[in-house]
């Protein structure tokens, strides 16, 4: 780590906003057009990228047949490969400055930042009439997912979440098989991932570090609370820290649970509960289990949709294998798997909806009712961006579906973080609130585990937070209070 630091680095280290890079007036986008003009099929879509280092670079390469006009990243070293690949694109630290200066020069935005900044970037872009592609998870919170769903509907832009399996054959087959009655009624689903492959369950660093010159720490923190920089937080490791990521569940459930949400026509859960290895206040646990109960839904195709329990496992945990599971066969397909327990058969499918098969060995012959996508997940979004709203065919993970689905995903995070209430939590999805957290209930979480070996014996001297009102704690998890200078648009009615 470079020990030198300039004026910008000093400001970032101390949490003071860097002039010209961090805070723009709240009216900065008021002069921008309400809606981008539709692009003719032969015209290239003008795209800007926000968060272009790792996953963002891959998405932009999948969009390179279009015109990449600007790139934005808080980490210029991490983004260097992307900057070099698109040398004609303008480069920015701050997406707000990019939007302000180039509002009439682009049509669409690709967002692949840390989870906690997805919503504010996408929401701002939508209110400017820009089409948006957002990497998974769609948002950090339930409220943010609901907001993006409603904003996209209001402004009639083309949207897509980056769960690429949604555009593949497997997800369509799962829905068609289930709704053709191939496995009967489904009342239990078990799903897992082999993630995390980044550090989780970590104590918060006691000391900060000098901010390197290639990183704008203030802009990385964005709407979250300011804290001293440490290299343990970014770039890749943000997923394991609650302020910036959603852990293994938020990262991989968007790929693994999508066939479940789509195939079973799920909406809001009514009951949730979670458990995990040691739950820390700052870092996601090493392993988690979550159960979400969804109410009875209307009949779909040939099959009834009764109440169903969806179980989630991560951190190396897997469901127990069914009695007729083939000996030696791995349930993990490219990062995880799902078991649908039907009254007639059991369906297994891998991550991204890949390699679906029935444990009975039968070969389903269900009618093909789902649209097949011949383009890539990314280019199908481009196709939708160039269509008029009245005639637009929605891409596979348009926010109309991805928003409610992502609420399911981050609901699992809520269940884990509220586990010390020691009860099943009842959820009012329409109003985004828990109905059985009482006024007198409080929550404490572990700040650090205090593990030591004393006289040859393992000891834990845990440091706990002060008790906080459980209702307030839950409300903050559902809808974050943003740091000063960062604000979401209002929720449409």
Automatic annotation (TrEMBL):
Domain Gfo/Idh/MocA-like oxidoreductase bacterial type C-terminal: 204-261
SUPFAM superfamilies in the record: Glyceraldehyde-3-phosphate dehydrogenase-like, C-terminal domain, NAD(P)-binding Rossmann-fold domains
Domain Gfo/Idh/MocA-like oxidoreductase N-terminal: 47-162
Source organism, top-level taxon: Bacteria
PROSITE patterns: TAT
GO MF, one annotated term: nucleotide binding
Gene3D superfamilies in the record: Dihydrodipicolinate Reductase, domain 2, NAD(P)-binding Rossmann-like Domain
InterPro entries: Gfo/Idh/MocA-like_OxRdtase_N, Gfo/Idh/MocA_oxidrdct_glycsds, Gfo/Idh/MocA_OxRdtase_bact_C, NAD(P)-bd_dom_sf, TAT_signal, TAT_signal_bac_arc
Pfam families hit by this protein: GFO_IDH_MocA (PF01408), GFO_IDH_MocA_C2 (PF19051)
Listed name of the protein: Myo-inositol 2-dehydrogenase
Record organism: Geofilum rubicundum JCM 15548
